[in-house]
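User: Teach me something about this protein's shape.
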Amino acid sequence: MENITHTERFVQALTGCQSRLFTFIFTLVPDEEQARDILQETNLVIWRKSDEFRDGTNFGSWACRIAHYQVLAYWRKTGRDRHIFNQEYVRDLVSSSVEATSDIDAKGTALRQCLAELAPQQQELIRQRYAPGTTVESLAESLKIPPAAVSNRLYRLRQILRDCIRGKLAMEGA
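Assistant: First, the predicted structure itself:
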């Protein structure tokens, strides 16, 4: 049996929840660059508070709570901007975002599993479609088929993925 230290478990948990933290922050801060800066600040605070985290508790919730305070600090700091929301609205938004992002990890895992279950050519079509700068039209041109045919294939694949994800999440919840 591997003897993993508290620090190693902490680092694994921190690196494992980066996408969840970023998603949480980005739902509250509309600018991607600012959200990434807040994520970095959040990581620093989390690291400084590492001795406060107790093994066996929910690391993701604890980290999101710290991110919550970092977002509030960001909004306070930028509060002089007349386009910024009031504090009460931000608090409500943070609360609803905590609830909404609590299952992001499970959904992401289910999506990865479902994508892996697709045929290789289906996986490639999805990969190509969501590559930066790719449109249905450009994909249709490269595949030498009408754009409507590409749209139909993508629609069917999305339905397959949606159903697969729902099934996996239902099994996990059972």
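Now, about its shape. The mean pLDDT is 83. The domain at 105-173 is CATH 1.10.10.10 (Arc Repressor Mutant, subunit A). If you'd like, I can walk through any region in more detail.
User: That's plenty for now, thanks!
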